[in-house]
Amino acid sequence: MTTQQTPSPEGTRDPDRSATQRSASPSTDPNDGAVSLDLAVQAPELSNSVGEYLRAWAKRLRSGESGLLPVVGGLLILGIIFQVKSHYFLTAGNLTNLLVQGAVFVLLGMAEIWVLLLGEIDLSIGYVAGIGAVVTAILAAPPDNFPWWAAIIVAMAVTAAIGALQGALVILLGLPSFIVTLAGLLGWEGVLLYLVNGHGTGGTIRLSDSVLLDLSNGNLSPTASWVVMIIGVALFAAVTLLRDRHRRVSGVVAPPMAVSVAKVVLVAVAGVGLVLITNVNRSVIGNLRGLPYVVLIILGFLAAWTFVLGRTRFGRYVYAIGGNPEATRRSGVSLGWNRLWAFTLTGLTAGAAGILYASRLGSISNNIDGGTLVLYAVAAAVIGGTSLFGGRGRMVHALLGGLVIATIYNGMGLIGLAADYQYMLTALVLLAAVTADALARRGRTKT
Amino acid sequence: MSVVADTSTPGTAGGAGRPLLSLRGIAKHFGAVRALNGVDLDVPAGQVTALVGDNGAGKSTLIKTVSGIWAPSDGVISWEGRAVEVHTPREADALGIATVYQDLALCDNLDIVQNMFLGHERLGRRLLDEATMEKKAKQTLADLSVTTVQSVRQPVGSLSGGQRQSVAVARAVMRDAKLVIMDEPTAALGVSQTAQVLDLIHRLGERGIAVLVVSHNLTDVFEVADRIAVLYLGRLVSSGPAAEYDTQRTVELITTGTASAAPAAGSGNHTAESKG
Q: Once rounded to an integer, what is the mean pLDDT over residues A258-274?
């Protein structure tokens, strides 16, 4: 106490006093006065060797940063169970079918992730997707006869505007997104019924344009499948390897070369496997082979949205707002515009999902169950690993989570269990995912 | 009220002739409540000024006025000798005034680099330039001798309290802040973490940055401050070099607004000579 009360003349710093304080404190370094910071969690990217990388990764797993491991593991377990129960499950035809079935869940999950990252929710996307489908179907049919691309553009513009409208209500009036989009869930179903019933074709609007039907049902030729896959993997390899090399050369945190290569090899194996499976003839009578277009559409959205989230300022702000809106505001970031854009992208992506949905069924009817669709969308995002509490999540979570849901849907159908068991199992998987998220959060706060 | 605020030669130790920030007659009214009443305060460059006072004395109101959260009802804010108006945090930021609030305003889900550049991201070809940002962040932390952070790519949520404080301060320094305002920087910290943060505040002063620290903890204040300013019921009742204050006198000023030991400056210097 006496040292602190000793006044130094003219307010100049007494070097002895500082030195005493420093050496008295156990956690500071007496040599240079550096603040010694102990690392609670070591990020794997900082390690130089593969061994270190794996050890750091294991450490992160234990502290709750489990990443994609639980959902990939869950997918494998489900696959094994269904294969044991029904030997048809792991056939090429069924796996391809599963991808097509899952596409709508995956895309809706991606739509939901935009708002989940903000810490908001959108309960309306099931029926917003329905609106997208209906607008496309109406415009492509007589009397409008829009070309397929014009119908899609208008429909996605409409659903984007719906997302923006709901976002504006949340942002400008400060209403909870839960309530605004709950109103949307009811209201857009009403609009959908109005549009479908008003079309005068008995509650169902058929798609007749061949391109629109092919979105979910068409395939690349086997040769084209290989070409597209090789180009895709090459692009991924180039981007990954060049970026990691650039980072290593610049002397910033980067994974070891072996890890970058391992990622590329993994993606290449997945790509080859995908094409091998989809190129098997899966028709009993005719010839049905090749990579479904819908897989490319999903991967396109995945790449685009991952890029926007990871590489642009807007994407960074979406995470920041979900993490700590007040801190983000004080950093001079416009919360309103960034949130509005996220809501708009939710609407846009939901519209695309609706078009795929209609394409698969060949029509859109007034009994589309948008309520179930939105619950599957949230479930897909959360099962994949996206947090309901905002700020944590990636687009690939919707892909994996959507595949889990499609697997349950598909597998339960194969082993002859009806909707009752299917809903119950989905509920259990969802609970498991949310529990994992909550436990991970507890793990993180402990560190 | 008997002690006249020292406004004579505030920059004696720092060397600069005129103060970096100078407040004259700052008043802030919320309806009938007079939170600040004619506050005169000088904050010189390269020195640590501690702002002390009891709850409700107006400390938070004063720093929020300087950092652009709200405009003063009356009075003049001078920055580097010229009168300025600070209406928004952005304007304060542009002048070089950075405020580190008690909650630190960090996003737990973002890593250190992302937090340090939040709202000020560097872009290359319209995309985030991570390499440049990471190098700059590392450099700033190294300059502040925060050398043992092993990864700047660690989420801020996994850092300890002292580390988080360091990140918040480094963010302010990296944006070329000339004045760093810190609100209760040690309030939530343990002993060793407090030592880290006080060390960091010392180094800011050594780098020629003015620091305005609000603190309840007089031990910390005397450890770190070059100058002390005491607020009492919205008035600045005393300010001057830390040498002129001891715990007893400061507590008296905080609780009653007056100090019995007068003349203050003389007694302070006398004590210093006798002990030093």
A: 92
pLDDT value of residue A149: 96
Write down all domains in chain B, each with its CATH number in brackets. 21-96+178-275 (3.40.50.300)
Q: Which of A33, A253, A333 lies closest to B151 in CB terms?
A: A253
pLDDT, tens only, A196-224: 999 888 889 999 999 999 999 999 999 99
Helix residue ranges per DSSP H, A210-292 = 210-217, 222-250, 257-278
Q: Is residue A414 within 8 Å of A86, Cβ to Cβ?
A: yes
- For B93-114, the pLDDT digits (tens) are 889 998 888 888 899 999 999 9
Coil vs helix vs strand at A22 = helix
Q: Chains A and B: how many Cβ contacts under 8 Å? A: 199
Q: State the residue for tokens 């944590």.
A: A392
Task: Provide, for chain B, the percentages of residues in helix, strand and coil under a 3-state DSSP scheme, each rounded to the nearest 5.
Answer: 35, 25, 40
Residues of chain B found within 8 Å of residue A6, distances taken between Cβ atoms = 272, 275-276
Token pair 């209609």: residue: A358
- Is pLDDT of A399 > 60? yes
Phi-psi bin for A409: left (phi > 0), alpha (psi -120 to 50), beta?
Answer: alpha
Query: Is A285 part of the contact surface with chain B (CB cutoff 8 Å)?
Result: no
Answer whether B116's CB lies under 8 Å from B143's CB.
no
Q: 3-class DSSP state for residue A290?
A: coil
Q: Is the pLDDT of residue B10 over 90?
A: no
> What is the C-alpha to C-alpha distance for residues B216 and B222, in angstroms, rounded to an integer?
11
Q: What is the pLDDT of residues B53-99, one digit of tens each?
A: 988 888 888 999 998 888 899 999 999 989 998 888 888 888 999 88
pLDDT interval class at A186 (50, 70, 90): very high
Return the CATH fold of A69-218+292-437.
ABC transporter involved in vitamin B12 uptake, BtuC (1.10.3470)
Among B115, B102, B110, B108, CA closest to A445: B108
Residue range B43-59: average pLDDT?
Answer: 91
Q: Is B23 helix (H, G, I), strand (E, B) or coil?
A: strand
What pairing do the DSSP bridges indicate for beta strands B210-214 and B123-124? unpaired
The pLDDT value given to residue A61: 66
Residue of A27, A247, A324, A447 to mutate when probing chain B, most B C-beta within 10 A:
A324
pLDDT of residue A443: 62
Nearest to A392 among B105, B109, B111 (CB): B109
C-alpha to C-alpha distance for B178 and A353, rounded to whole angstroms: 52
Q: Bridge-partner residues for A363, per DSSP?
A: A206
Considering only alpha carbons, which residue of chain B is nearest residue A308?
B127
How far A5 CA lies from chain B's nearest CA (Å)? 6
Mean pLDDT of A52-70: 71
Structural domain spans, chain A? 69-218+292-437
Structure-block tokens of residue A303 = 């790449």
Structure tokens at A215: 């979105």
pTM recorded for the entire structure: 0.84
Instruction: For residue B215, count other CB atoms closer than 10 A to its CB.
Output: 21
